Backbone:
């Protein structure tokens, strides 16, 4: 179980998950700007290679290296893909680390659990023989019997996988299940465990925090929660949720709103005014009842993220409400 004061490593997947967001297509120049912003924020790793677009992702990795962007790069390769071993060979020496994905759902190939195990271990052996730094990832991990995940993760770690990533692929997990799952997996694998949360039920940040409490060493995040369908756990929410509970991430909260605005501009996906941490209304107070003790209505100080408090005392609705309260108190 993770405790306050522990370091939680963040892997930003904005450049990879962004590819699966409708209408989003980052140019190479835009991707470089985002990567530089991640460095400025203190994010140590960027996942940039998508499993269905390995060649394009590796091109970006080389550009990041050529431009001397000081961030670790990683990516994903399907272990059961027709070009898996060729993609492993291409990734060797380009990306700092990649993870071999094995979807655990019986509806995805290979369908039988034993075949999934065999294919994954074969691909892992090829990668390790090529002197690659490689981990494994398990999509649909929260949708299958827990024993299936625990057993295949144990074998992969024993065979040399340097990291295990647990995916809540359809966002159906809840914090209680996720914490319990990670707590059971933690003593079985002797390597770092990451959690990748999707936000289909609005629980990605809560599930990410629960994963850490259950023993996860790291989390996948994206700026503004950008990603497939309802998106992913957002960098800004996770950094604050962890930091306020005493966990270290190395990310500077004061740069998060700047990163949010950049990704909003380059992706074309608007950030809600109600968005936690980076939304326009986070520190906007309108209720007269708040005015005497504003800090009691804020989860954290505006200065922590480089923002300013706004008091909307002149709002006609607020003034009317105040007058009504005054008359009622006579």
Residues:
């Amino acid at each position: 179980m993770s405790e306050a004061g522990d370091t939680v490593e963040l892997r930003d997947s904005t450049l990879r998950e962004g590819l699966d967001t409708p209408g989003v297509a980052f140019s190479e120049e835009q991707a470089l700007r985002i990567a530089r912003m991640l460095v400025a924020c203190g994010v140590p790793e960027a996942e940039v290679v998508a499993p269905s677009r390995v060649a394009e992702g590796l091109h970006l990795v080389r550009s990041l290296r050529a431009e001397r962007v000081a961030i670790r790069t990683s990516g994903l390769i399907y272990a059961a893909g027709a070009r898996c071993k060729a993609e492993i060979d291409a990734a060797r020496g380009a990306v700092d680390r990649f993870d071999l994905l094995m979807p655990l759902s019986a509806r995805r190939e290979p369908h039988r659990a034993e075949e999934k195990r065999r294919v994954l271990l074969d691909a892992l052996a090829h990668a390790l023989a090529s002197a690659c730094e490689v981990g494994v990832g398990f999509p649909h991990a929260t949708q299958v019997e827990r024993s299936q995940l625990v057993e295949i993760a144990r074998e992969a770690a024993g065979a040399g996988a340097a990291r295990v990533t647990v995916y809540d692929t359809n966002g159906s997990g809840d914090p209680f299940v996720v914490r319990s799952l990670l707590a059971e997996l933690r003593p079985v694998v002797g390597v770092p465990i990451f959690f990748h949360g999707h936000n289909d039920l609005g629980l990605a940040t809560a599930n990410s925090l629960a994963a850490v409490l259950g023993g996860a060493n790291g989390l996948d995040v994206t700026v503004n929660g950008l990603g497939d369908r309802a998106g992913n756990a957002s960098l800004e929410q996770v950094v604050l949720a962890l930091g306020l509970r005493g966990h270290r991430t190395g990310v500077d909260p004061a740069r998060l709103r700047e990163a949010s605005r950049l990704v909003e501009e380059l992706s074309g996906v608007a950030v809600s005014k109600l968005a936690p941490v980076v939304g326009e209304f986070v520190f906007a107070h309108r209720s007269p009842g708040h005015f005497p003790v504003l800090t009691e209505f804020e989860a954290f100080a505006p200065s922590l993220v480089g923002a300013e408090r706004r008091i909307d005392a002149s709002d006609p609705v607020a003034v009317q409400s105040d007058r009504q309260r005054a008359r009622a108190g006579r």
